[in-house]
């Protein structure tokens, strides 16, 4: 129902699963993300290589934390799998380690925009990002490190840098050299991570309430808009029907009145006097009478037809079509093609049952006309969309209950 909320819903689903805190890495490829995770866990879990290596997500639970290795982002990362993996990492993680290799110097545009996005997200959801300046052993000395650090500080004011070297840490661990381990920055990063992890339950509670609140509000807004358009459509439907019925009645009144006046003014009725064989080519009073009635009938039909055409009631619905195309009109279906006798004319146009029949049958074909059908189907669609909104609300409640 809310395409723009797909990501938030997927995140809520993750939160509802209630798994251990998830720490992931973000940053460009080959900046030492996988190796950093290995050092933090103290085990060579994730593949490390001197080229683009990680392409899918992989994770490992260690010390009550789910460590999630993710692909690096880069301009040439065209593969769909990568972007799916990145989206999933974004969705699943509580804490992001933004990894940038010190030997690259400043942040590039892509990194800056990603970092800005992470900060915005932190402001909104309270999910935290730690900035990791990796591979610092690649720099010549402390002065160079300061240069890089202040350049990045100028790009991203207020950013706290965790400078680390996975290589140093590994050497320190393998050689049991405490000082080297300390100087690798990994213990300090682990301490910062512990602080961040301690804030995860509170952050999750905040984020959960925020997302449910926002989605509920948006659903309610959508539902209100749907109700409003349904009411407007139904109003239109009723108003149109009312106008049609009233307009048709006026036309019927008019033609009925004309016909009654014409009939009342007539003298002796000759129509029922049968013509004899000798009259075959003669103009008889009976013939004249019948022609007269037929003309009055045609006039009335033309007048009604004009009104119907103005309301889009012309052709019969396709399932009523016959091979004789000229007969496929509503007018002919309801009124027939000829009337020859006074009593028939009176019955059709001047007497109440006849007039009511016209109202009823033209009303029926009016509802079958293209515009009215389109309106009816729009109403049905809106009703279905409202039902879908209600279903979405119920599903959201269910998800919240599960959490
Ligand atoms: N000198 C030095 N090299 C490092 C350090 N960390 C990682 N490397 C090397 O940098 C290369 C890339 O490391 P990875 O951990 O695979 O990099 P990644 O960011 O995971 O790369 P992708 O998986 O492709 O995104 C490997 O050759 C690592 O051995 C470090 O602290 N110092
Ligand atoms: Mg990797």
Automatic annotation (TrEMBL):
Single GO term (MF): GTP binding
BP terms from Gene Ontology: tRNA methylation; tRNA wobble uridine modification
Listed Pfam families: MMR_HSR1
Domain G intervals: 23-130
GO CC list: cytoplasm
Top-rank lineage group of the source organism: Bacteria
UniProt protein name: 50S ribosome-binding GTPase
PANTHER family hit by this protein: TRNA MODIFICATION GTPASE GTPBP3, TRNA MODIFICATION GTPASE GTPBP3, MITOCHONDRIAL
InterPro entries: GTP-bd (IPR006073), P-loop_NTPase (IPR027417)
